[in-house]
Amino acid sequence: MKKDNIRDYAVDAFQYFATLKCAPTKEAVRFVLQKRHLEQCPNERDCRALEAEMQDMFAVVDTIRILSAMENGNEILQTLHNVYFANPGEKLKRGEVENRILYTTFKTHISTATAYRYLALCRRTFAEERGLRCAA
Q1: If phi over 0 gives left and psi between -120 and 50 gives alpha, with beta otherwise, what is residue 59?
Q2: Which of 112, 108, 17, 116 is nearest to 63 (CA)?
Q3: How confident is the model at residue 92, as a pLDDT?
Q4: Cβ neighbours of 82 (radius 10 Å)
Q5: How confident is the prediction along the chain (136 residues), in pLDDT tens digits per residue?
Q6: Do residues 11 and 92 touch, judged by C-beta distance below 8 A?
Q7: Contact partners, residue 127, CB within 8 Å, separation at least 6
Q8: Do residues 77 and 110 lie in contact, with contact meaning Cβ atoms separated by under 8 Å?
Q9: How many Å apart are CA 132 and CA 21, to the nearest integer?
Q10: Cα 41 to Cα 37: distance, rounded to the nearest angstrom
Q11: SS (H, E, C) 42-86
Q12: H or E element, residue 38
């Protein structure tokens, strides 16, 4: 996989979103994050970490919405789910992304190159929605 400057950040955001196990709506994300935040630090009301988490998760929600509206959105989202949303609490091991992509190509009947392009599109869309500066 060709490394881009936002890959790790975007992958972590997608995996964190998967750990929330909530509907891909901003209201659901806000509710789950505020609940988690109050459980972890009940004395702090204004926390920058919560705001940053919300912005990341809102960018993921917007990314899912944008990708689902595309012509081949179902394939893109299935690739995203199979690769980045599978086993969200675990760190990705070496070669695991490749194995998940192979699984996805068999399941969805797309080529490996197409799966990598879909994942790059997911990361790029996330970066744009989050307002990150990314290389072309």
Answers
A1: alpha
A2: 17
A3: 76
A4: 17
A5: 456 678 888 989 999 899 888 888 888 888 888 787 777 766 665 566 677 888 899 999 999 999 999 999 899 999 999 998 887 777 778 888 888 899 989 988 899 999 999 999 999 999 999 988 775 5
A6: yes
A7: 6, 9, 10, 133, 134
A8: no
A9: 25
A10: 6
A11: CCCCCCHHHHHHHHHHHHHHHHHHHHHCCCCHHHHHHHHHHHHCC
A12: helix 26-40
- What are 125's two structure tokens? 């869309």
Quickly tell me which residue has 């400057």 as its tokens.
5
Q: Per the structure block, which two tokens stand in for 95?
A: 């070669």
Residue 123 structure tokens: 């990361």
